[in-house]
Design goal:
heterodimer; A: alpha/beta; Rossmann fold; six-stranded parallel sheet; 57% helix; B: mainly alpha
């Protein structure tokens, strides 16, 4: 059984590509449906604005599993493999587990200690469970990850005073505007990032929100969610920006849509009223030269990230503590997971010993017929205890070996199967063998 | 001259200086991410009580001056500057209480300290005992002018903070004291309100000055009066702040350029004090100094 993780995250993948793999809750059913029949035993999809990751558990080789999952991503999201293959992150076994623990601990987030990720991990597990794609292994893995996240929140200061790009944007806006209820936001591009950033500002009291998007209906949808109104994209550029105080640009445009040339006349109309532009699009929507215009304050993701990093540095010690928790929980899960790998061998061994016991009881049953039921029960219990005693040490060693705590350089599971003839190399115990083992034949012969 | 007013004003100066230091240190040391100080110690929080005590002490100092000399504080340069520092401190304390703009006080309160210090350096000068100065009417003229100066100093502090905040925002630099600077909008509002109150007071003060001048020096032509450097600067100052108010109020202008006007305004205010003063003298210098 292989446990693996395949994904695209903010570390390696530009936002414009990540957005193409976005898998909202409404599309999850279709995604799981598409995964059905691919031979993957268990799978959980984690889709956030910073990552799209598949956690899978399957009885296939590493290469086949990777190919299967990559093909699924490509076909389901209609993105050619060559477009994203170089950005993919592939992790197996311990690395995959450690990664999920880091994700849940928000150590892998764009912002250390951000709170949303734990809810997103929980939601991902719930959706997979609802659709029957999260079995024992992934359920246990994700529950351990959630436990990790909770421990990080309660045992470290990483979660206290959480800080995100959205928070950074609000803080920067707070350096310019003192009353958010009077501030006007214009959102260019109804993406997830702009929604999150705008939501932060709306929570701080912004009431006037206008959303503009190339696809008008998406603008309307987001405007409804934010309690604002929608505007045609071209109107927003030409007239909306003259009224707005804060512009959140997050379109998928391949080049800058706002530059000095088209902003200068707008700024003249604004008569020096400050304009705060948050450019969270990649590639950037706003020409960096715009910042040189008077009373324009342009911040892109990297600038906001600087504020975030500043905060993160302050909490670097907390991140170390969180990292230790994640490592501890990783080992905890791996111990369980690997021990679970020995379960079939242990079950086979126990079954084998039980068969031997039953055979002996069957053979010796008639000879013990003269004994009372209580005595027969005592003998049966004694035999069972002997069997358990014999099996106890090997089972413990098998579990330790599977969990990676073994000291011998061979697979004890394979050795056990071979030694006890459980791999099919030795025939079943026959009555003759039993007679030989018990010395019945020799006594017959001597008679 | 002797009396309790000098030691009291020295004490007030020390309190103002301590408050200014507290405000200044509070910007850097109380700020989020400040590397050296424990945030539990709120220096800016300590500054306001010091400032308020200083204001109280100055009230006592000015009162004791009036009791000892039987003169208006405006009869001497020392008293005038002392009252100016007091009004400035009062305006800054009020602004801090209402808007929590500690950073502005860090900039503007040292100006009040300098004025009070300058006044103390001239504490041994002889008070004018001109009849006009004995009148309560001239006090209104001086008080209006001084109050407008204090408000312009507050506007200047706001403008300086605005320019600094603007620069930091432009450079995307997150310094430790960055978060302690008030938002641009607040600075803009306070500066506007201070100027909006200061300008009419300045206009009234100048108007009363013209009236008194006409009474005091009936032979003076308007041309002579206007070309007195002191009066010329005063009018320029009035026009400068009027320009600011007009741009802000009638044309809806905002932003960094208006702040430069406010900075220039305070420079002009200081120049007003420095430039030679030809017509602005009171007649009928009476006998000698009243000894306290």
């Amino acid at each position: 059984m292989i446990l693996a993780q395949l994904g695209l995250s903010h570390h390696t993948t530009p936002i414009y590509l990540r957005e193409r793999f976005n898998c909202p809750d409404s599309a999850v059913t279709d995604a799981y449906h598409a995964l059905h029949g691919l031979g993957v035993n268990e799978v959980v999809i984690v889709s956030t604005c910073n990552r799209v990751e598949l956690y899978a558990c399957a009885e296939m080789t590493e290469e086949v599993l990777r190919r299967t999952l990559v093909r699924f991503l490509s076909q389901f999201h209609h993105v050619p493999e060559r477009d994203f293959d170089q950005h993919l992150q592939w992790r197996v076994d311990q690395e995959a587990v450690a990664h999920l623990m880091r994700v849940a601990a928000s150590l892998d987030s764009l912002v250390l200690g951000e709170a949303q990720i734990l809810g997103q991990v929980r939601n991902a597990l719930r959706l997979a469970q609802d659709r029957g794609h999260a079995g024992l292994t992934l359920t246990r893995l994700f529950e351990q990850a959630l436990h990790t996240g909770k421990r990080v929140q309660t045992e470290t200061g990483l979660g206290r005073g959480r800080y995100s790009v959205g928070h950074a944007a609000v803080e920067m806006a707070g350096r310019i505007f003192d009353d958010f209820s009077k501030a006007k936001i214009l959102i260019l591009g109804a993406g997830k990032m702009s929604e999150v950033t705008a939501r932060h500002l709306v929570e701080k009291g912004v009431r006037w929100v206008v959303v503009a998007n190339r696809t008008y209906q998406r603008a309307v949808d987001l405007a409804i969610q934010l309690g604002g109104s929608a505007m045609a994209f071209d109107d927003a550029i030409n007239t909306g920006m003259a009224d707005a105080d804060i512009v959140i640009a997050s379109t998928a445009a391949p080049h800058a849509i706002i530059h000095r040339g088209n902003l200068q006349p707008i700024m003249r109309r604004r008569r020096g009223k400050p304009l705060f532009i948050i450019d969270i699009a990649i590639p950037r929507d706003v020409d960096p030269n715009v910042n040189s215009l008077e009373n324009v304050f342009l911040y892109n993701v990297d600038d906001l990230q600087q504020c975030v990093n500043d905060d993160a540095m302050r909490r670097a010690g907390e991140a170390d503590a969180a990292r230790l928790i994640a490592e501890e929980e990783t080992l905890g899960f791996l111990s369980w997971f690997r021990a679970r790998q020995a379960t079939p061998t242990i079950a086979q061994l126990k079954g084998h010993l039980d068969d031997i016991k039953q055979d002996y009881l069957r053979i010796f049953g008639p000879r013990l017929a003269h004994l009372s039921a209580k005595d027969r029960q005592t003998i049966e219990t004694m035999v069972q205890s002997m069997m358990d005693q014999v099996a106890r040490q090997p089972i413990q060693k098998l579990k330790r070996d599977a969990a990676g705590e073994g000291t011998v350089p061979i697979s004890l599971a394979a050795a056990t199967l071979h030694l006890f003839g459980l791999d099919g190399s030795t025939p079943e115990v026959s009555a003759t063998d039993l007679d030989e083992a018990t010395g019945v034949t020799s006594s017959r012969e001597s008679a | 001259m002797s009396g309790p007013f000098i030691p009291l004003n020295i004490l007030a100066l020390l309190l103002y200086a301590a408050a200014a230091a507290g405000y200044g240190a509070g910007i850097v040391l109380d700020a989020r991410n400040a590397p050296i100080f424990d945030n539990r110690l709120r220096l800016a929080g300590m500054a306001l009580p010091l400032l308020l005590i200083g204001i109280g002490v100055q009230v006592a100092a000015t009162g004791s001056w009036c009791v000892n000399t039987h003169l208006s504080p405006f009869a001497a340069e020392y008293g005038t500057l002392s009252v100016l520092a007091w009004i400035m401190a009062l305006a800054l304390a009020a602004a801090d209480l209402k808007y929590h703009i500690t950073a502005v006080n860090a900039v503007a309160l040292p100006v009040a300290c300098l004025i009070l210090f300058w006044g103390l350096l001239h504490a041994d000068h002889t008070p004018d005992e001109a009849s006009l100065l004995k009148s309560q009417a001239i006090s209104v003229h001086v008080l209006c002018i001084l109050t407008s100066f204090a408000l312009f100093a507050l506007a200047f502090g706001c403008a300086c903070c605005y320019l600094l905040q603007h620069r930091l925002l432009k450079s995307r630099s997150v310094r430790p004291f960055f978060s302690k600077l008030p938002p641009l909008a607040t600075l803009d509002t306070v500066a506007y309100q201070a100027t909006a109150f200061g300008l009419p007071l300045l206009a009234v003060g100048i108007g009363l000055g013209i009236v008194y001048m006409a009474k005091d020096k009936p032979g003076l032509t308007p041309l002579q009066w206007i070309f007195d450097p002191h009066n010329f600067v005063a009018f320029t100052l009035l026009l400068l702040y009027a320009l600011y108010i007009a741009a802000r109020l009638f044309f809806g202008w905002r932003g960094v350029r208006l702040q430069y006007i406010l900075v220039a305004g305070l420079v002009l205010t200081l120049a007003l004090y420095m430039v030679p003063n030809v017509t602005h003298h009171f007649q009928a210098r009476e006998t000698t100094v009243s000894k306290a």
